[in-house]
Amino acid sequence: MEVMVRCTPCTALRLRGKPRLAVVLFEINSHSLWTSVKVLRMGKVVIIRGEGPKGGPGKPEMLTPTSAIMGAGLGKEVALLTDGRFSGGSHGFVVGHICPEAQEGGPIGLIENGDIIDVDVEKRRIDVQLTDEEMELRRKKWTPPAYKANRGVLYKYIKNVQSASRGCVTDE
């Protein structure tokens, strides 16, 4: 399995060991975080998935949700994990460009509310506290989400784009 992750440089939330963090999932448009900041207080990890090259489509920028988290003063309390992208303008504890993406059946697409996640920055690992059997059961039940476009240029892009770990190219 090809795996790629990018983290923001973050001195305020340097996680050591394996902190156990609750999950809040946002599968709605990530811009709705501006109006949902109170929900963030319920969990320590926000997962925005379905924003990868195929799921986005095109890997939308996550500056809006990271700004909402920082603007709410939660940059030290909330981590954001996403298969979307972020630029150098994002601050806080952000792990992005996660591959394989949710649209393609990556593990980020199998996480459910209430799951416990271990984030170990030093070892560069993200682990969900589930047995192999539980993950396999979720994998078997998983069905791909509908594409956000079913014709035209975006559909052609979705059908041809490679994973972020391969550069999101469309000519292979």
TrEMBL record:
It is an enzyme of class 4 (lyase). Keywords: Iron, Iron-sulfur, Lyase, Metal-binding. PANTHER family: DIHYDROXY-ACID DEHYDRATASE DAD, DIHYDROXY-ACID DEHYDRATASE, MITOCHONDRIAL. Its EC number is 4.2.1.9. Belongs to the IlvD/Edd family. It comes from the Eukaryota. It holds the Pfam family ILV_EDD_C. It comes from Carpinus fangiana. GO terms for biological process: branched-chain amino acid biosynthetic process. GO terms for cellular component: chloroplast stroma. It catalyses: (2R)-2,3-dihydroxy-3-methylbutanoate = 3-methyl-2-oxobutanoate + H2O; (2R,3R)-2,3-dihydroxy-3-methylpentanoate = (S)-3-methyl-2-oxopentanoate + H2O. The keyword Transmembrane helix does not apply. InterPro entries: DHAD_IlvD/Edd, Dihydro-acid_dehy_C, DiOHA_6PGluconate_deHydtase_CS, ILV_EDD_C. Residues 38-168 form the Dihydroxy-acid/6-phosphogluconate dehydratase C-terminal domain. GO terms for molecular function: dihydroxy-acid dehydratase activity; iron-sulfur cluster binding; metal ion binding. This is dihydroxy-acid dehydratase. Pathway: Amino-acid biosynthesis; L-isoleucine biosynthesis; L-isoleucine from 2-oxobutanoate: step 3/4; Amino-acid biosynthesis; L-valine biosynthesis; L-valine from pyruvate: step 3/4.
